[in-house]
Specification:
single chain; elongated; mainly alpha
Length: 67
């Protein structure tokens, strides 16, 4: 496991979810510095926001994403 963020804006939902789980595990282990914990928290918040936007959780609709 790395200490640097591994997600990018084009990451899949699965990749973002896996990274979020890694962040949670690191924070729950409690073996990171306060500065690192804050950075992980910020990254996790950003990932959650991206996932919410992608999944359109606000109204429960499933949308088809075209690229």
């Amino acid at each position: 496991m790395t200490d640097t963020p591994t997600t990018n804006p084009d990451a899949s939902i699965g990749e973002k979810t896996e990274r979020l789980e890694e962040i949670i595990n690191q924070l729950e282990a409690g073996e990171v510095s306060l500065e690192r914990a804050q950075a992980l928290h910020d990254e996790g918040q950003n990932l959650l926001q991206e996932l919410e936007e992608e999944l359109d959780l606000g109204n429960g609709n499933i949308i088809e994403r075209t690229t």
